[in-house]
């Protein structure tokens, strides 16, 4: 890739906005990791003129000062500079000669998307490329660091790039742009105002008590996690039914899906309160909606779910609660967090819901386009849900980006996705039902749980205990493998000998009939030794997850 030529004349230093500072702080915990990469690609069906595309990108950069931002650090504090000019050479890749050019291009883009940005290199914090897939198909690839743009800003980038391309192709005039520096100054004024102090008090009062998270995890603030993506499509006719229902009840689609997630996770976790992180545009002025830059914030929304409420009642309560929280949306999440908790490892929420109704309705001259997002695969929250309605005539895609460690001990993500889709359909049919009466699993899943999983009929000798059956099998096939975990194996003979040894030790400690023994142990071969040893001693075992918070473990014991 050719290096960009940078103009050495820079404007004065500017502080990071409070929202940028949240991003910077977390990015510093994960140096050289793509946790804040955003973007995707535009699938262009038609021909593209590279020279016109190059000019369109150059104008895009010239019109949007956030794309010319450089983040620097001095004495432990970050600040930003805005370069007056960047000469950017758009990288062009021709993969049309590859045997499976589309598959190759998609895999190549995903790999490219996972590359982190280097803040120390004084290089761009964005990447725009053009990829030729075949004679009449191109991918316009974007990779942008979240510190200089957000999801809304990304939609502006796409629209403006298309508009610039078409204007150049048609020799039309350009339109004047607003500057991101306006927002930097606005944020500085806000942080020096009385409103800032009132907002801190609001959030401090709102979360005097922090509800228990839905997912039990033991993740330190600087531990890197890995995530995957599961997706589901809501057919346009079903989505239109949701919109009609919401219009009738004077609520929004966003209120509806917040209610769906609140209902589902309250039911499966038996929790009366569910906190969901809500990303917001935070573009409070009309001019803000025309500017590329990082404006977005996240606010914690506490949803109180009562089994006696109807879904409609819950949705209206969410509407009122969200309205109250919006009045205090300017306080960045980092500042909300520090006003509530001093513990960096305590999370306010572990589920987020983002409703993205961004306008991507634009096409390069003579082409048809589709927008696709990519995942950085390091989602910190247990679950991040994205509802993406990019075209009013097409089906709606819902992405579930889930942390792998969180779902190892929860319901399989495939079941969660299927059940939430079923819950949506159930609510549309009857929203007046009490929340406790709404079906959250479909008939197929219900049959599997109630019939197939319970079909445990087997012919065992009725006069033998499990210990006797196990010992007989160990005597018959001592060298057969009894337990496998990761790279460790244990034979029936070894398992039996170790279980007997443990049983003797437990009996000496008083374990016998009607004695319950707590097992605080990670998943391992030793866990099976422990179970068999307790049973052989005559006791009963009670497994305790070591990832539980200490107070929950103490309460259990």
TrEMBL record:
- GO CC aspect terms: cytoplasm
One biological process term from GO is: lipid biosynthetic process
Gene3D superfamilies given for it?
A: Chloramphenicol acetyltransferase-like domain (3.30.559.10), N-terminal domain of ligase-like (3.40.50.12780), Nonribosomal peptide synthetase, condensation domain (3.30.559.30)
What range(s) does the Condensation domain occupy? 12-450
InterPro entries referenced in this protein's UniProt entry, alphabetically: AMP-dep_synth/lig_dom, ANL_N_sf, CAT-like_dom_sf, Condensation_dom
Domain AMP-dependent synthetase/ligase, first and last residues per copy: 470-557
Signal peptide residues are none
Q: Which GO terms describe its molecular function?
A: catalytic activity; phosphopantetheine binding
Q: Which PANTHER family match?
A: NONRIBOSOMAL PEPTIDE SYNTHETASE, PLIPASTATIN SYNTHASE SUBUNIT B
Output this protein's name: AMP-binding enzyme
